[in-house]
Amino acid sequence: MAKAGNKIKFKADWLLSPWAIFAGIFLGSFIGVKFSSLARNLIPLGEIFLALLQMCVIPILVTAVISSVARLITTGLTGRYIGRLVMIIVAGLVVASLVGLAFGFLGKPGLGLEESSRVTLGKLISQYEMESTGRTEEAPTGLMGFFKRMVPANVFNAFTHGQTLSILFFCILFGIALGFVRTPSGKDALSVIEALYEAFQKLFGWIMYILPFGLFCLFAAQISQVGFTIFKALFKFVGLCYLGAVVLIIFYNCLIWWRKKGSFFKPLIALRETLVVAFGTSSSFAAIPSALRCLQNNLNVSKGTTNLVFPLGININPQGSVMYFALSTILIAQIYNVTFGFQAFVIALIGSILAGMAATGVPGAGALSILALILGPLGLPAQTAIILLIAIDPIMDPILTVINVHANCAATVLADEEGEEKS
């Protein structure tokens, strides 16, 4: 039986290879461009695949964070550990914001638009305003909105609606409380939670065998819904975003390489499954199970560090969103011919960080509307920014998710004191 089981596993392992994954992406993109009607029929299958991934996310998030926080409390390393993590995250957010601003100033995405591009953008704004007549968007903005979403009035309601920020806050508090339970029953409860974590990781590993098929359906549906007209109008902006993403990814890779030594490409190879999941699903939370496994198994990051830092970072360290908001601010300012002085630069730098953190967990237009936090003090219309960015959201989401995930992988590696001692 064992021999047969190993044979089956060997035959299925090709589905986890990069070639199978990229084949799914390429074929899905081809179907989305050439056969849009067929691509739309694949939408339900893509949604089922996403649901399977998300089915494991909350259980893994809960068990990983609770067990890791509890272990931190019992070992007494909490103060030094958290202080180091805060320094890493703050530095990363500042770098991401500076990269976005730098590419905005150097690339000038909002200047020199062709007449056809301006006509396209004008039509898009008019169309959006007609469709949004009588519709109101409610999205909490600023730091108060961020903290309000963090504290759940009803934790069961937070679990029911998948409010990850609220769930994370509850798990951290619960993990702290469990860490201070010094009785045998407390140790048993912690052991049960860790066993559940291992079981959900195993389940996620099985789901990964259908990753090429899931990405095929997701990309076909996504490409079929994106018009090339608006992409042409904002081609320079999209290109600068992707170029900025490449710079940040190389930066994160260098940090991991510096800590883990070996080949320069070792970090990218070790995290390739996680980055592909992030790009294909456009969901940082869907990439959590894969990231935890790859960090522990491929980069030898300690389990305690991985299970705490990465899920926490996904909620408070969205470096892709920060870079995007900074670059978007420059785009809107240049479209409206607003000059940037030192004060405006500081507002954009800090505002992008706060807006990125406040937008965590807010889907779609709700997250984009938080740009008002930056644009308002600069006297720029947030509505215009929302209209333009919604149109290219399907194009931008995948690469921004990759940045968020890769940034937090790097933060996890840097925060790992046990890994530092080994290297």
Would you mind describing this structure in some detail?
- The protein has helices at residues 2-12, 18-34, 36-41, 43-75, 78-107, 115-131, 142-150, 155-160, 164-179, 184-207, 211-225, 228-233, 235-260, 266-270, 272-281, 288-298, 303-316, 319-335, 342-358, 364-369, 372-375, 382-391, 393-415, 417-422.
- With 423 residues, it is mostly helical.
- The chain has a single domain (21-31, 53-422), classed as Proton glutamate symport protein (Orthogonal Bundle), CATH 1.10.3860.10.
- The chain is globular and about 70 Å long.
Summarize the topology:
Elements: H1 2-12, H2 18-34, H3 36-41, H4 43-75, H5 78-107, H6 115-131, H7 142-150, H8 155-160, H9 164-179, H10 184-207, H11 211-225, H12 228-233, H13 235-260, H14 266-270, H15 272-281, H16 288-298, H17 303-316, H18 319-335, H19 342-358, H20 364-369, H21 372-375, H22 382-391, H23 393-415, H24 417-422
Helix pairs in contact: 2-11, 4-9, 4-10, 4-11, 4-17, 5-13, 5-18, 5-19, 5-23, 6-22, 7-19, 13-18, 13-23, 15-16, 15-23, 16-17, 17-23, 18-19, 18-23
Query: Order of SSEs, N→C?
Result: HHHHHHHHHHHHHHHHHHHHHHHH
The gross shape turns out to be: globular
CATH H level, superfamily name: Sodium:dicarboxylate symporter
Structural class designation: mainly alpha
Largest β sheet strand count, sense and barrel closure:
none
- Number of self-contained structural domains: 1
Helix content: over 70%
Please count the helical segments: 24
N- to C-terminal distance: 40 Å
The stretches of 5 or more residues where confidence is low (pLDDT under 50) are: 1-10, 132-143
Count of extended strands: 0
Give me the Rg, rounded: 22 Å
CATH 2nd-level architecture: Orthogonal Bundle
